Amino acid sequence: MTIDREEASALLKDVEGMESRVRQILIYAHISDFFFLWGAIFAAGFTATYFLRDWSNRMWWGLEALGLAATVAIAVIHHRNAEQPRAAIPWRAALSMLAVVGFGTLWTSLSHMGWREQVTFWPTLLSFIVFLVGLWLGRTLALAALAIFATALAGYFFAGPYIHLWMAAAMGGSLFAAGLWLRR
Amino acid sequence: MVDEVIHQSMRLKIMSSLNVLGRNDWLDFARLKSILDTTDGNLGAHLETLSKAGYITIEKRFEGKRPQTRVRATPQGRKAFAEHVAYLRSILDNS
Prior knowledge:
Number of strands of chain B: 3
Distance between the termini of chain B: 16 Å
Largest sheet of chain A: none
Oligomer: heterodimer
Mean pLDDT of chain B: 90
Strand order of the largest sheet of chain B: 1-3-2
CATH architecture of chain B: Orthogonal Bundle
Distance between the termini of chain A: 40 Å
Structural class of chain A: mainly alpha
Number of helices of chain A: 6
Number of strands of chain A: 0
Strand content of chain A: under 5%
CATH topology of chain B: Arc Repressor Mutant, subunit A
Order of helices and strands of chain A: HHHHHH
Number of helices of chain B: 5
């Protein structure tokens, strides 16, 4: 059997198309793990803050530390199972999360935000970053991030004194739903 | 050298998909069918051919109460795929 240049070129295009499609599916599946994790953390944190307001600062530090550790653990598992493992990925994941948490902590401290603004700031910051990532990785991720952003903002304007419970249900729920959507 | 098993268009697409997965990852039959936009019968026949050549492993199992068929490329399949792609590239490079 002989293959001419045109056929070889068409077959290689098929290969590249399939590889890029499956890669995107895998990336979405990996990102959905982080959505499930942070959905659970937001749901637990905001619910606990509503009922135990005096403990909220310590609780959030604990939850963020837990989230950071779990983020690194998930990144390590993904990395170990990758076809071509790149050692820097778990550390990049950890540094990225630290940078986001550091940036957010700096500006929530310096800007003397009110508590409602602080409650809304974190979910909108994270969904904004996911939106930017989605612009590069795929439309589905960007749309999911926009939906989460809008849900958080709606809570700020319309949830009144129940904003913590709104964020717990809406952020936990929307991150979980977005995770499922990315895996569909 | 043309690998007659992989060269067929659908089988090449199947191997391209499985080759991207991690070493311990499987791809669900239903997911693969949706990626390739084909029918159960067509996909099943091509998977059987690849399996007989030793290029993929097919596993049938139960996930909870639901039967699930999943596939993954063997090291031999990954090697054959890499060689076939290199061969296709060499045609472009040499012409």
